[in-house]
């Protein structure tokens, strides 16, 4: 039985975001009817709507429909006027949202990237900012829409009625910053694009040319960078006067780039990947969407399936799999009072690290789950951190790590808000025995280790389900639990190049290009949260019990660009050309007055073009081609304020927005009118401001954010609730198995 069998969903013609949301329902086995969708390209329709059925509104009996998906872009959304259907869950996805000071604005994916603060992170700091991978804001918005819809469906029996789920592309993009907003709120640092490198922690971290193609290399830890320097004969770089530790390459990437590029130029991609992965340095081939079809890992895992409309074309399969189902027992989740959120009563053991897994856990928590973050004693770093790390990361309030840096590192705080902390050493037999006693008391266990870690700790899926037959075990390995790349070390910033994202970005004279954030992390986290919600509904409705969910980050990311994989097989790979888009007449990013201020705009048709040229009294003959248009509008923008220019362009119907920096987002009146920000009183930090999870639920709002726990803050509480006696807890503390500070 498919887990969503029995649900009926209607998706009304709109945007790619709505279509991706509909695809998630169809992948899960729901009966999905699509009305229209003429705004999608043929390739998008072939991929996203493959398992849906076309219909007309007159054919739809809404009394028998569970979910109605409505979306629109570039136009604001105008929802259907329906007779009273209190049972219906309505998902409404639009560029700027259904309310707020700019809810009437138009948006394209370039405008989403700009207004959401992401375009400022992509590209060369000496050139115009770049659009990220095409249509990814829509994919993320569709995923948040699906998560919200499933939460509303799960809550509906307790509520006695449906509700409205509201999603804004721009709010989604604001929520999916990794470090941009942390750095601004903590230190006043404006995070900027840093060239063809991932704009985050660690260097090297980007694409490099080899003798036969491109490779993506990531060096985050000191051990990884020192190993790379040793094997490439570049250890002498550590003697440079500007380099006190490997973290200093973050501030001086040019010192490493030139000699590393020279070393790589005489070696093949396969040789470099094999060597670096053997040393546990994340490295992967940089592929375009056409090359993904022949990727050995995806072939070995039978990831692709023939396209229904053309069997000669292969499309990505679902981004996660369900296995090992059992009949439900007494440990299956029984929902609590819906006033505590759709997932009230759900208990989650969160063993995840970095971003993708912790984001999944944070979403579940915001929907009402109790989430215990099981941290290694050294998870948040050592007792003291070098000044180079403080300077490179800018994670600490006022660049001051304080006496207990492990409780002041805001990268951990952001994804731990509202969670509980159990600091437990799983490298010991006693720690493993402790976890084994905890597992029966939880409904979900999630982790994003490499596939070898849990079995080495004695917790493969069979062992976990022996401890708790009703357990939802969510594993998020980088490449999955089989295949030639199963044991590759993977970070989001290496997966994005391997999964085709970097090949979709670049200037007209320089491609491929690295993304400004590690986009596969949030995409994997959102898919994983979706999978948990699917199984929760299936357990309540179809009586399904324990399950293993495998959500490989690589496959999640490929699924998110599945339309480009289909397109590449039919028309050839997409060729990025800066910020231009063949779907529109003109599109670009143009410098305005002030320091590194830019505006992004899209001209979709002749009517918009005429309105724009009339507004600025320009000669339409200047728009005979894109280069002439760029010259004409460059002159217009150079004399104007970006915010004001966006307002006048939107007023005549042209999608536009300033390329927002962190301070622009923090003071944005539209975001404030949508209550995008929340501030908590964070222990050892003080006021901590962050975006909320961007899902609006009309009847069961998300839980208010709570402060993040200090390391091991809930050791006693968690162990006591699982039946540990006071003496047992004392022994664990005295032996250092559970801690409240890192080991010396």
The description of the largest β-sheet is: 7 strands, mixed
Spatial strand arrangement across the major sheet = 3-2-1-4-5-6-24
Structural class: alpha/beta
Query: Average pLDDT value?
Result: 94
The low-pLDDT segments are none
Please tally the helical runs, counting DSSP H or I stretches of 4 or more residues. Answer: 28
Shape: globular
Helix content: 25-40%
Question: From the alpha-carbon coordinates, what is the Rg to the nearest angstrom?
Answer: 25 Å
- The span between the termini is 52 Å
Number of beta-strand segments: 24
User: Assembly type of the shown chains?
Assistant: single chain
Strand residue content: 5-15%
Report a brief summary of the structure.
The protein has 744 residues and is α/β, with parallel strands linked by helices. It has 28 helices and 24 strands.
